Amino acid sequence: MNILGIETSCDETSAAVLQNGRVLSNIISSQLIHKAYGGVVPELASREHERLIVSVVESAVNKANIQKIDLDVIAATAGPGLIGAVMVGLCFAQGLAWSLGIPLVPVNHIEAHIFSGFIQETPDEAVPAENFVSLTVSGGHTLLCVVDRNLHYRVIGRTIDDAAGEAFDKTGKMLGLDYPAGPVIDRLAGEGDPYFHEFPRALTSRSRTSKSYRDNFDFSFSGLKTSVLNYINTREPAFIEQHIPDIAASIQEAIVDVLVEKTVAAAMKFNIGSISVAGGVSANSGLREKMESACNEHGITLSIPKAIYSTDNAAMIATLADLKLSRGIAAPNNYDVAPFASFEHRY
User: Fold this and answer.
1) In 3-state terms, the chain is what percent helix, strand and coil (to 5)?
2) What backbone torsions phi and psi does residue 271 show, to the nearest 5 degrees?
3) What's the confidence (pLDDT) of residue 218?
4) Which terminus of the chain is more solvent-facing, meaning fewer CB atoms within 10 Å of its CB: N or C?
């Protein structure tokens, strides 16, 4: 079975072809137009998707060495995401599926991240063989779930304000770093001292205001942003400029500490021996290193998708559609799909 996946939830236009569970192509076009604005501009994102969607899909089909008439199913992100951006990919998928007379499967973008560890490039690649704790961490979402191989999951924690990726980008902007600031902070952190300044870790064992952190798997990063802003505003500009690598390292350490502590604590509490980390922030080297160290210490197996599958991509959309279809969980749609308003939206 050949599945075409389409992903346009934010600022990546992506298309992928999956054949019998294996990725044949995964084309991603990242929009650079937003750099000048220091963040994603929804209207510009929608226009870029409109401009790129046809060529990206053509590239994915051609790289897979098939033709459109060979497609059996089309899967597309139906949300959550920027509504205009989602609609571009979803409407394109609806029209293409209808013209080819093949089924359309709407996919929840965040669910696709959760199950991105199942993406296969070769026939012998293993998929998770047991229940696992999933940390999905990106610019818009920070989510902790307990997941089983039957694609059932239970949300045990989520951000109550800002996502970790947003915290990276917004604090980086305060430091005058280019957008997206997450990768820049990651690079600078390698040159700085992570213990230069202790920024707050909300809802953790190091939080002065949380007495029930052991059973609280929610996340909060708004206080960190405020703390960084106050720190910058109460120091001389020359001091900040001199210590940017140290400040970046301290910010990264604060964010990573929270993510690792809560994820490992969840695995210990529910007696689960496997952790999966996905989403754009999973590419952060500090998070990967600290999570690997913590998992080794506690005898937990760690799974992190390849960097190309950690950020927004269509291979994860096609993969989740394939998994759901093979298990009889999701029936093909009749092309009449409304965009999902939130992560909790079911189809």
Assistant:
1) 45, 20, 35
2) 55, 50
3) 95
4) N
Q: Is 83 exposed, middle or buried (0-12, 13-18, 19+ CB in 10 A)?
A: middle
Mean pLDDT along residues 113-125 = 82
For the beta sheet containing 153-158, the strands, ordered from the edge strand earlier in sequence to the opposite edge, are 153-158, 142-147, 132-137, 274-278, 301-303
Instruction: Give the number of C-alpha atoms closer than 13 A to the C-alpha of residue 169, restricted to the C-beta side.
Output: 18
Q: Are 31 and 67 in contact (CB under 8 A)?
A: no
Handedness of CA 241, 246, 251, 256 (dihedral sign): positive
Compute CA distances 78 → 24, 37, 313, 338, whole Å.
Answer: 23, 26, 14, 7
Mean pLDDT is lowest, of 50-64, 136-150, 184-198, for 136-150
Helix (H, G, I), strand (E, B) or coil at 101: coil
Q: Residue 27 CB: number of other CB atoms within 10 A?
A: 23
Residue 107 pairs in a beta bridge with 77
Q: Rounded distance, CA 279 to CA 140, Å?
A: 10
* pLDDT classification of 60: cutoffs 50, 70, 90: very high
Q: Which domains does the chain have, with CATH numbers?
A: 2-119+309-326 (3.30.420.40), 132-304 (3.30.420.40)
**Residue 326: both structure tokens together:** 């093979």
Q: Which amino acid is at 238?
A: A
Report yes or no: 200 and 254 within 8 Å, Cβ to Cβ.
Answer: yes
Identity (one letter) of the amino acid at 33?
I
Q: For the chain, state the CA radius of gyration.
A: 20
What are 154's strand-pairing partners?
146
- Sequence-ordered list of residues with C-beta below 8 angstroms from that of 62, at least 6 positions apart, any chain: none
CB atoms within 10 A of CB 104: 24
